[in-house]
Amino acid sequence: MNHQRNEPAGTPVGRRVLLSTLGLGAAGLVAAPHIQSGLDSFLGAVSSQDPTGLSGLLPNGGGFRYYSVTGSVPHKDAGNYRLKVDGLVDRPATYTLDALRKLPQTRVVRDVQCVTGWRVPHTPFTGVKVSQLLDAAGVHPDAKAIRFTCFDGTYTESLTLQQARRADVLVALTMQDKPIGHAHGGPVRLYVAPMYFYKSAKWLSGISVTSDVRPGYWEERGYDVDGWVGRSNGRDDAPTV
């Protein structure tokens, strides 16, 4: 992995560029809510014209800032949403939103930690464990990893098979006990509880079982592939496990 000179090893390129461009730290925004209100409007206008998604890495007044790495993302709902499970499996499948809702649901409550430093404590996510979908599909013995794709047409993520089988890795249908809206990555997103939030891909549309780990969108731009909170990207945040 390449790093710019005089930067700590593992520091994500996106965080570095964003903070130097805006000249603001997340801590300063949290300490100044009257500034945050105006900045939210400004960043909303910026992010709508920001295909990199970097303007979305600052938290808003509610603790989150949602962003996209594309200019626009199509909206999906119960009528047209589909999640495909394929790759090195015996039984490829396609799930509708209603079909996912009918499967056994798991609720996980953890802190959400952004690699830029902000954290939203005790955030509940509910959904289907990825391991359930993998078991239903019948994973081939030579499979080693999972590649996740998104219906924005650009974002991807990956996990090893062992990581994906954790009980706290979900195909999430609700966040904060509400259906996941479009801006939050809905109607379905990935949730990887023990890793930095960039691993929890929004607008999830595909789960493909592969023979090796393929770096995702941000990993190709300098982020660590194994994004464990506190043990990657040059940070030492308290783990969320």
TrEMBL record:
Taxonomic superkingdom? Bacteria
> Membrane-spanning residues where?
none
Give every Oxidoreductase molybdopterin-binding domain span.
71-218
What InterPro entries does its record include?
OxRdtase_Mopterin-bd_dom (IPR000572), OxRdtase_Mopterin-bd_sf (IPR036374)
Protein's UniProt name:
Molybdopterin-dependent oxidoreductase
Which organism was this protein described from?
Streptomyces liangshanensis
UniProt-listed Gene3D superfamilies: Oxidoreductase, molybdopterin-binding domain
